[in-house]
Amino acid sequence: MEEFTTLYKITTLDFVAIDFETANELSISACEIGIALVSNYIVTETQSFLIRPPDLRFSPFNTRLHGIGADHVKEAPDFKDIWEKISDCFCGRLIIAHNAGFDLSVLRNLLLHYNIPFNPIHFTCSINVAKKVWKDYQRYGLKSLSKILGIELNHHSAASDARACAIIAATAFRENQVSIIEEIETKLNIYTGFISAEEYFPTRIKNMSSQVAEHYHLQH
């Protein structure tokens, strides 16, 4: 499997937006992943994959949200098999998710659960990006931003959510002439986060106090 590219080697703003749907409250219970690839501010590819969780226990609440139940995924590949198919999509790209803390925790915990080796993966959150770029908006949820920006959305379909996230971030970056990863910090004042086998560090807006940042710096 190809190794991940670390942040200092990423020079252009190609990124991948992701969205996980989960079967229950456990972060390793992912039952679907959506992926949207972006190059030069354009979504070039969108994919989704059903995933068989380690335990086929589906919360009725979760199923009501995304419409996926045990019968839909019992014959699906597990995350380790899915990762072998999609890992190349992440090489050399920043990851962006809407409410990234959730999706990147799911990704990290799945990689650890299946003992999949990985280099540090850098990410940011499209909610933070939207808040910095469109300061006068009242709401920053995926559904609200999609309506404002005219993005077609089938909410809680992983592919549709990932695509909407990708368009939101790409639109914000284009409007602010953010063309390389470092400009997310220098122009938008947002620090990228990262996950590794040892720790999780969140993306955050620059004016967050060091004490708050330290609270989120979870070491394992």
Structure description:
A hairpin with a 7-residue loop joins strand 1 and strand 2 (30-39). 36% of the residues lie in helices and 22% in strands. It has helices at 60-66, 70-73, 79-86, 100-113, 126-133, 142-149, 158-175, 182-186, 210-216, and strands at 15-22, 30-39, 42-50, 94-97, 121-125, 190-191, 193-195, 199-201, 204-205, 218-219. It is α+β, with helices and mostly antiparallel strands and 220 residues long. It contains 9 helices and 10 strands. The strands form 2 sheets. An 8-stranded mixed sheet has the order 3-2-1-4-5-7-8-10. It has a two-stranded antiparallel sheet with strand order 6-9.
Main sheet record: 8 strands, mixed
Q: Spans of 5+ residues with little confidence (pLDDT < 50)?
A: 1-11, 209-220
The number of helical runs is 9
Spatial strand sequence of the major β-sheet: 3-2-1-4-5-7-8-10
Structural class: alpha+beta
The backbone outline, from C-alpha atoms, is: globular
Counting copies of identical and different chains, the oligomeric state is single chain
Distance between the termini: 25 Å
| H-E string | EEEHHHEHEHHHHEEEEHE
Total strand count, please?
10
How much of the polypeptide forms β-strand, as a percent range?
A: 15-25%
Average pLDDT figure = 90
